[in-house]
Amino acid sequence: MKYLNLSNSIYQQKGSGMDLTVKDGMLINNRPNSRTGIAQACEMKKMMKRAEKVSMYTEAMMMSKSMGGSCDMY
Description:
This protein is of the alpha+beta class. The protein has one helix at 37-66, and strands at residues 20-23, 26-29. It has a two-stranded antiparallel ribbon with strand order 1-2.
């Protein structure tokens, strides 16, 4: 049986496959998240907009209760 020489494979070379490790024969990806700055900014904007909506809804419910109205929507 002939064995392959894997001493120069991509998994054995220094510097290649940064943040990739081999554990129990499996290749583990330890790389940081690959999202771009624009995608991160877009997600933050969506989160802020949702937080503002929730805050507005909460404030409206509190005002309604203080005025004596019933909030039996749900």
